[in-house]
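Folded chain entry
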Amino acid sequence: MNQKENGALKAIAKHVGVLNKELGIVKNDVSLIKKDICWIKKI
């Protein structure tokens, strides 16, 4: 594998890591919204 390919793979891996982090944040938001809905139903 040459330097160019290696750099491209690293860039892709970084991008995937960022996407995974964003997905994790979205999942946290969704679970918080579900908690809020459950709490609202109790009132």
User: Anything to note?
Assistant: The mean pLDDT is 93. Residues 1-43 form one domain.
